[in-house]
Each structure stands twice: as C-alpha cells, then as structure tokens.
Write a structure and sequence with these properties.
about 260 residues, mainly beta, 17-stranded parallel beta sheet, nine-stranded parallel beta sheet, 1 helix, 29 strands, about 55% strand, elongated
Length: about 260
C-alpha cells in the first residue's frame, strides 16, 4: 500500500521546518518500494555563506523517472548543477522527443531514447556524461561551448543519429560501443575514442584515437569521409584495431601520428 508521514513546524527555532516521507509500491509487478524524502527547512539564524554554499552545491539534484515518459515540444530541459542526475528505474524509458533540447552538465544514468538533441554546453571544462544504462539516438548528441559529452561504458545505438563535436569534445570512454550513425565535427573540435568499440560508423569529421588506448572496429564497414588520427604525435602507443573482415572505405585520410 501507500504510506506517508508528514510533519510541520509547531514551534521552535525555525521559520519553516516541514517535510515528509513517502513509500509507494514500485516496479512492474509492484513488488518493490520507492521511498521519497522531502524537507523544507529555514532556521531562525544567520548561516555563514560558505556553509550555505557548501550545503547547496553538495546536495544531489536528481530527477527520477518511474514510468515510460516522453519530453516533447520545442523547449529545453537544463541540467545546471555538476551533481545533476537524470535516471530511470525499473527498466522504463525516457524519450527526448523531436525538437526538444536536453542539455547542461551532470549525468544521464537512465534508459534514454533520444529523438531530439542532447547537448553538453554548460561551460568550458564541464561535462555531461551518458552512463550506466544503454541508450539510443536517432537525433543529435553534441558538445559545445568547450564542454565535453562523455559516453562512458555503455552501448549507444546510434543508427539514424549523429554525434557532433560543435565547439566542444565528444569522448568515448570505458569500453563504450557506438553502433551505426555518423560522427561530425566543426572547427578544431574532435571526437576522441579512449578505449571504445565502433560498429558500422560513418566518419564525416575528425576522429582521434587517444594515446595509450585501443579502439576496436567491428561490423562490416568503417566509412571515412573525414580524418582519423591515430595518437597525439608523441611516443605513447595508440591502437586502431580492425576485427574480422571490416572494410575501410571512403575518400578520407587515416593519419598515424605517433
């Protein structure tokens, strides 16, 4: 069943001190419980700014999706905190619809089907990481504003979609596998593979295999209409390994820099 405990301030050294605990059935068969905790507290005292900022920046900002959900329209969903987290539970899927922008920084941990745009763009040096659950993309996943889009240790079904480094960096990390779709870059931006697997990719931009890493190419074809750079022009070993009978096609260049 559904259980809830709510409290409100009667008297004390607070302007407000209200909150609740809620327990509801969860999961496809309702055999688990989802616990929610909410509190709104404002003490009657002056709290030094460093302590207040520490509490605010140290808090977790989580959006948890518990049923199949679509975000639509022409608006945006901004993740503005470094600890911002978007997750799904129980195998449900969050769909980012056509024309909708999901952007900022933090982590997207849940099952995501992107039809619109997912963009890392909060500020230089920040990152938006796609982690934990596998994802699919028939739209655009991009990096801008000197930020990084990290695809880390997941499988991304990119068939019908594109990865775009547009003033930022796209990094393929931790054994991430990218299946299908296109790689595109603008200006001096790069898509950087740091221990990844690429399956039936069309490279239209600059793809770099990072030093001290191995990128594996599988499937039937790697079409290169841009540039594939092996290494960073120093002494570290960078490996691009073709498994089985993969065909390298296209008018682009493959450059060995180390």
């Amino acid at each position: 069943g559904h259980y809830q405990r709510i409290w409100v301030l009667v008297r004390g050294s607070y302007k407000r001190n209200d909150g609740s605990w809620t327990v509801v059935p969860w999961g496809k068969d309702q055999s688990k419980s989802l616990v929610g905790y909410w509190v709104d507290s404002d003490p009657k005292m002056i709290i030094p700014d460093p302590i207040m900022r520490g509490a605010q920046t140290g808090a977790l900002c989580i959006v948890r999706v518990v049923g199949d959900t679509r975000i639509g329209g022409s608006g945006g969903f901004l993740m503005s905190d470094a600890a911002a987290t978007l997750e799904t539970v129980g195998g449900v899927t969050l769909t980012n619809g056509v024309g909708h922008l999901l952007h900022g920084r933090g982590e997207i941990r849940g099952v995501l089907d992107n039809e619109g745009e997912v963009r890392s763009d909060y500020a230089a040096g920040t990152s938006l990481a796609l982690v934990m659950e596998n994802k699919s993309n028939t739209g655009t996943m991009s990096a801008a504003n000197d930020a990084n889009l990290d695809i880390d240790a997941i499988i991304l079904d990119n068939r019908g979609g594109r990865l775009l480094a547009d003033g930022g960096g796209v990094r393929l990390l931790g054994g991430a596998q990218i299946i299908g779709g296109g790689f595109e870059t603008t200006g001096s931006s790069e898509i950087r593979a740091q221990n990844a697997t690429l399956t039936d990719i069309v490279n239209l931009g600059v793809l770099r295999v990072a030093d001290s890493t191995t990128t594996v190419v599988t499937g039937q074809e790697l079409r290169n209409d841009g540039r594939i750079l092996i290494g960073l022009a120093n002494t570290a070993l960078a490996i691009l390994r073709f498994d089985a009978q993969v065909e390298l096609t296209g008018p682009g260049r493959l450059e060995l820099l180390n």
